[in-house]
Specification:
Number of helices: 15
CATH architecture of the largest domain: Alpha-Beta Barrel
Distance between the termini: 62 Å
Number of strands: 17
Structural class: alpha/beta
CATH topology of the largest domain: TIM Barrel
CATH superfamily of the largest domain: Glycosidases
Number of domains: 2
Helix content: 25-40%
Amino acid sequence: MVLGNLLLFIVGIFSYASGAFVGINLGTDVSNMPSAPDVVSILKANQITHLRLYDADAHMLKALADSGIKVMVGVPNEEVLGIGESASKAAAWINQNVAAYLPSTNITAIAVGSEVLSSIPNLVPVLVPAMNYLHKALVASNLNFQVKISTPQAMDIIPRPFPPSTATFNSSWSATVYQILQFLKNTDSYYMLNAYPYFGYTSGNGIFPLDYALFRSLPSVKQIVDPNTLFHYDSMFDALVDATYYSIEALNMSGISIVVTETGWPWLGGANEPDATAENAETFNSNLIRRVLNDSGPPSQPQVPINTYIYELFNEDKRPGPVSEKNWGLFFTNGSAVYTFSLSTSNQVTGNNSDFCVAKPNADPGKLQAGLDWACGQGGANCDAIQEGQPCYLPNTYQNHASYAYNDYYQKKRSVGATCDFDGTAATTTVDPSYGSCKFTGSSTITPNSNGGFTTTVAPGPVTPQGGSATVNLPVSKIQFLLSAVFLALVLL
């Protein structure tokens, strides 16, 4: 027993001593949810080393055993009340959902609730007691060095995040936040932050440049500068993290690091969500990964890396709300990547590096029809998948059908000189246009091999996703920005 506890202690030390990491969230409000072993195979195939669960699902925790993946488990909001009122319930929760799986499953953290302060205020009085009871149960099991406890909060409990240097927590919650910070300080844990530049940009009414939200370089005349510190902010992500550090400092607390437990960018939106595109999502997440893995912190804390979890593994198509709410996933449920990215410092890239040939947005419908007819006829493209009742028929638009036909022709004939033009209606892209069970020729997908794992293959045509089903309905945080006109006049030089 002593040796086992010593090993857990050593593992705990190395989990915090290692460099910055990028993990991923697993929401399960998904049709055709893969089995737990298949999910783990997808994680391992893509070198994903850190996973956040919104609950403590037994199937997932068993499947993660001996995988080496570090796991953050969650106490669902509906369970916080009972735990916060009963030390015995907290101890039972730890025994059932944490101790029972260690050390085979490498559980390193517990997220107590999700955005409780801003979304379920009636739970606020029991939030810190729940964290304390859970921590005492960890201590009783000698697991407190291995497993850290915190509670994810949305950016909207900081009403004015710009400029970062003057940011403070909402005064209505400052007493509770202070108690949370005191707990984190006493237990050597970290502040869990859900921060979404997508919402910061889309709610800013054009005040901030899109490049600022996507980690792209800004010209000197548009650089964002905090007028009090003169710190330059190259990305909204860094500014949001720094606003949280300054808010913590405003409560006379220090030495508490921040882990971003949710961030990301939707790759598909409705007609009124023009910024939710695959191109923007690929840009944001690729630049996010590169930024996090450089091991540096925001301007006010340059030596403290920003460990981050991307929202999310799969598209949660069963979520309510606008189209964008359902399309944050990096992967489809059959394991194929939505777009190209790499989740590690290695050279392995997830997705497809080849070009796809797709119809241009707003191309002339008459020309698209002509190009579609030629590709499916003289061009020799296989257009079976866009016939009614087939996987790529919907959406039933010229642009969608032409994209599929153009790409099929291009992939088959490019080696003998075929081009992607079609009378000016087509262009190449590195973003895989596949969606759902509609797979474009040339798309990279992951299929089960004989050993029960996954191997990367090239999909010759449409592939039907596999899996079962499970549901967890958890909201994506919405950042509420109250922008200072004076500050904006100063920083948008």
